[in-house]
Structure formats: structure tokens, C-alpha cells
Amino acid sequence: MTRTDPDSCPGVLRLHQAADGPLARIRVPGGHLSPGQVQALAAAAVDLSDGTIELTSRGNVQFRQVRDAAALTERLTDAGLLPSTTHERVRNIVASPLSGRVGGWTDVHPLVPALDDALQAHPRLAGLPGRVLFTLDDGRGDVSGLGGDIGVHALDENTYALLLAGKDSGIRVSPADAVDLMLTAAHGFLELRDGQWRLHEIPDGRARLTDHLLAARPGLDASGDLLDLPVRQDIPIGWLNQDDDRVALGAGVRLGSLPARTAEFIAAVERPVFLTPWRTLVLTDLDEWTAEQVVRVLAPMGLIFDANSPWLLVSACAGRPGCAKSLTDVRADATDAVDTGRVVPTGAPQFTREGLGADDIVAAGRQHWSGCDRRCGRPKGAVTDIIATTDGYRIVPPQ
């Protein structure tokens, strides 16, 4: 597929003109934020946008209704969240959030700054489309199934499988060579693309890029047994015992919208924070007493530490008034469905007919509410689609 429309993926320096005002997307490689950066985001959300921090499906953040783009650029630069004016939109790196702390073959987090710095060091890679995604999976399989363009998946402590278009290429690489190989793949993508935004859109893109890498790197081979990488859906929520006897807390965020005031309290904990591609966050490196106090304070403020919460089953697009293409305020309807107990883990009936009113909807398991057939923000995997139409909602069970 060749695209003729320009890549309009937003950033900080190029805002998206949403229906409710300018939208900025801030890349957070590996989802890692220092306490100071969380505080900077909270302050900017209050002073320069609508007072909320939106979490995205790539572990990034968004501001809506941005009032002063220049001031936002200055603040993010000062906080270390905008290190490059040329490469800001290509810093899409997702890593296993719990890596190095809870399980996994190896800690992939040191690869994040190495890959980020290397991307910024190559002027040509500023030409990558803003939708290209890099994934770093420590072997547990939590991010490899997200459909990244270029990624590595740990097979043991010393070996990664190279993933292309979300599938195993058969190429194996050591941790020391992983970043360099991913960069070579990124350059190869630029050579192969003909207007396409993603590797899977290029005809035979995976095979062609694999051949390109084998030609560019004579020592490589693609003889590894191909892995089958299913999409995992176990979101880290609640009390998580780290391998070093400290505690991490996984917290859900209702519809991925984090109030600035809550973010200020998170920053006050003064521990590293990791945003996840499931629009949740993980507070790490806590002692048990501190973890207990965090739950006592932040749970009443709306953070979700209960893995059985129905809020963890629901996601939604922006809907009205944020999106001009949306037919209704899907977030309000999704919220009402949760609040009235019409979102349940299992066993609810599934519908495929048109014209269901919002109050008639009962749906089981993971579900995504969409204001139109584009289904923006839909998570990967088995998801019930609840789609607004001109005559109510249509519900489509998982395929």
C-alpha cells in the first residue's frame, strides 16, 4: 500500500488541530519518567492545557487544548522531555515496563537510552514516519505482541530475536549488538518504503527487510526457529514484589486520563515512574511502608490498584468534543456503563445488531468504545468493539 496523504502524526513542535483545540503528543521512550518530569508535566497540564495528562497506547502522553505551544516547548525542553527538535516524533520506543525489577530474562531498560540517543544521532532517521514503533521485550512477551515495526525479544540472558513488523525474522543478535542492528533495520525501512508509514504496509516488507539486513551484515543469518508471539493481556496492576525485595505498584488510570493533581501526588512519591502501553503506570522501587501509604492516598484519588476493576476492561477513543469525526461522546457513555455495572469480566451477552442505545449495552471482557468506524486507539488482541453509528451503537464481538 502506497500512501499519498502526508504523515500528520502530532508531536510537540507540530500540533494536531483537534476539534477541541491543539493537541500535543510527547514521546517518552521506554515510558520512563523521573519524579521531576512527572511534576513538570503536571504543571504544564494545568498552565498550558486542559489540566489532564492523557496516556497513549505507546506509553507516551498527550496534552489537549494547548494554549501556548512555545511555552510548552520551553518547559518540556527544560525537563529533558524534548531533547531533539529534528527527531522528536521518531522516538517511539516501548519496553517491558517491569523489566529488571520483576521477572523477565534480562533488563531491557538500558537499551532504551542507547537506542534513543542513536536514533537522534543519525540525521537521516529524522525522516522515519511518526508511526514507526520500536519494541524491547525482556522475554515475557508483553510488548512484542503490540505490532511494532522493529523490535527485539529476549530468548535468554544473552540472545535476542529480531522482530520485524511484529513477527520473528529468524535473525538472532547479542545484547551488545541489538541497538546497532535495529538502526540498520530502520535505515533499511527508509530505503524500502514508498510512502508507507509502517513496515507491514510495504509489500513483503518483512522478507525484503530481512534480505536487506543479511546483505548489509554478512555475519548475520536468519536460521533461527521462528517464534510464535501471542498478544499478552495481563496488565501489571496492584502490589508487585520486585526481585530486589522492594515493591512496585501498578496503577490503572480511568480511560487513560490522568488529572494533573493526581500526577503531582505521584511526583511527590519521588520514585521512578513507567508509563505502559496499556494506559496505566507503574511506580517502582518502593519500600513496603511507602507502598502502603501510596495506595491509601492515591486510590481515593482515582488510581486503580485492583486487578479486577471493570475500568481495566474499558478503553475509548477521544470521542466528542475532542474529535470532529466522532458521532457521540463515547467516553461519557463508557463511563456510565462502568458506573452502572454494565461492564463485566465474563458471561455477558454479545450483540452484532445496529441501533443499541448506550443504556442497552452490556458487554463482557475487554472492550473498546469508538465514535466512528476508524476505531482509533483500539488495543491489540481479543477486544469487543462498541462502535457509534448514526442509529445508536453496534457491538462486534472479538474475532
Commentary on this structure:
The chain is an alpha+beta fold and 399 residues long. 24% of the residues lie in helices and 23% in strands. The protein has 8 helices and 21 strands. The chain has helices at 35-48, 69-78, 111-121, 175-192, 205-216, 260-268, 288-298, 330-339, and strands spanning 16-18, 21-26, 32-33, 52-55, 61-63, 93-95, 134-137, 150-156, 159-164, 167-173, 238-241, 247-252, 257-259, 273-275, 280-286, 314-316, 343-344, 363-364, 367-370, 384-389, 392-396. The strands form 5 sheets. It has a 5-stranded antiparallel beta sheet with strand order 1-2-5-4-13. The protein has a 5-stranded antiparallel beta sheet with strand order 3-14-15-12-11. Strand 20 and strand 21 form a beta hairpin. Helix 3 (111-121) runs parallel beside helix 4 (175-192). It is globular, with a radius of gyration of 21 Å. It starts with 15 loop residues before the first strand and ends with a strand. 44% of the residues are buried. Residues 347-353 have low confidence and may be disordered.
Summarize it:
The chain is an alpha+beta fold. Helix content is 24%, strand content 23%.
Fraction in helix: 10-25%
Question: Gyration radius, to the nearest Å?
Answer: 21 Å
What is the CA-CA span between the terminal residues?
Answer: 24 Å
How would you sum up the major sheet? 5 strands, antiparallel
Please count the helical segments: 8
Low-pLDDT windows of residues: 347-353
User: Within the largest sheet, what's the order of strands?
Assistant: 1-2-5-4-13
Shape: globular
Helix and strand content put the structural class at: alpha+beta
